[in-house]
Amino acid sequence: xxxxxxxxxxxxxxxxxxxxxxxxxxxxxxxxxxxxxxxxxxxxxxxxxxxxxxxxxxxxxxxxxxxxxxxxxxxxxxxxxxxxxxxxxxxxxxx
Length: 95
Description:
The chain is mostly helical and 95 residues long. It is built from 3 helices and no strands. The protein has one domain (3-79).
């Protein structure tokens, strides 16, 4: 396998991981918004408010972890960047 092919594979893998992490982060942010903006849940006597606080804390902790992982993957991705292919499909410079 050529070095160029290996770089493209690494780039594709890092891109896929970044997209997955971004999806997880969006999901956590949505959960946080739903949890915080649900006044029925917050004021209801039927719910254990300690669980509510613990759940919100866990979401925030997960968001921090995902953001850190995303930063690491972005750093690794930038180290393995492959120059984009030209329109004609060649990666050589015409000097």
